[in-house]
UniProtKB/TrEMBL annotation:
Residues covered by the PUB domain: 55-131
Organism this protein belongs to: Scleroderma citrinum Foug A
SUPFAM superfamilies with a match to the protein in the record: PUG domain-like (SSF143503)
Name the UniProt record assigns to this protein: PUB domain-containing protein
Biased composition (Basic and acidic residues): 184-197
InterPro entries: PUB-like_dom_sf (IPR036339), PUB_domain (IPR018997)
Region (Disordered): 18-39, 184-211
Cleavable signal peptide: none
Length: 230
């Protein structure tokens, strides 16, 4: 490379400065997005999850993510650029649920009055907030559903274990009753056998030398004598 083709020191310095600025800008953007994510995460927990019931909190998160995703998908659709705070669903899931309306405001919705009606209207300059906030909502919903699933499985396993334990106790009780019945039957048989042996031992033995086969008690007579022997 000839001397004329080489960039001048000024050009090299400018290129280096541009790279530094680009790196600084990228780093600054990453820091800002990280801070936004942390802000939205805090708005979810403890903001929404802790002060409300699990069912109400999850319903609010799903409503918020629906609003955000609709607007991200169709940013020019006026229907998705605002919501009425007096709407029954919005009132129940965003206004009455603690922390939910604050999340909507952080997404970029601002209160306005139109024709004496209270609305929350999206500020187009907050599109980046909307994108980050929607991602955090989906993340939080997935985690909460997974957590509730684990709890349900745990309860089901505990219930099954309790039922199995109760069945084992019942079977053990029945086995004990059966064993006792068999033991009682065996002892009764032994007692009856012993009783039979005792009765057999009390029977008078037959005299095999007696003509009649019966031993007679009393005074005896001799043949040809009319009087008993003295």
């Amino acid at each position: 490379m000839s001397e004329s083709d080489r960039p001048s020191p000024e050009t090299l310095a400018m290129a280096a400065a541009l790279r530094r600025n680009e790196n600084t800008t990228n780093s600054s953007s990453e820091v800002q997005e990280h801070e936004k994510r942390q802000t939205f995460r805090r708005l979810v927990d403890p903001g929404i999850l802790r002060p409300n019931s699990k069912e109400a909190a999850l319903a609010s998160l799903k409503t918020l993510v629906t609003i955000a995703e609709n607007l991200l998908r169709e940013p020019d659709n006026p229907k998705y650029q605002q919501f009425k705070s007096t709407n029954d669903l919005i009132k129940r899931r965003l206004v009455e649920t603690k922390g939910a309306l604050e999340y909507a405001i952080e997404l970029g919705f601002r209160p306005q009055v139109k024709a004496l009606q209270s609305y929350y209207v999206f500020n187009p300059r907050c599109m980046e907030n909307l994108r980050v906030g929607a991602a955090i909502l989906k993340e939080a919903i997935d985690l909460e559903i997974e957590k509730q699933g684990r709890m349900k499985r745990s309860k089901a396993e505990e219930k099954a274990a309790a039922a199995a334990a109760a069945q084992n106790i019942k079977l053990a009780f029945l086995d004990d009753r059966k064993t006792k019945a068999l033991r009682d039957e065996r002892e009764r048989s032994i007692r009856e056998a012993r009783k039979s042996d005792t009765q057999a031992g009390d029977v008078t033995m037959i005299d095999e030398g007696s003509p009649s086969g019966v031993v007679m008690s009393g005074v005896g007579y001799t043949l040809g004598s009319s009087h008993p022997e003295e």
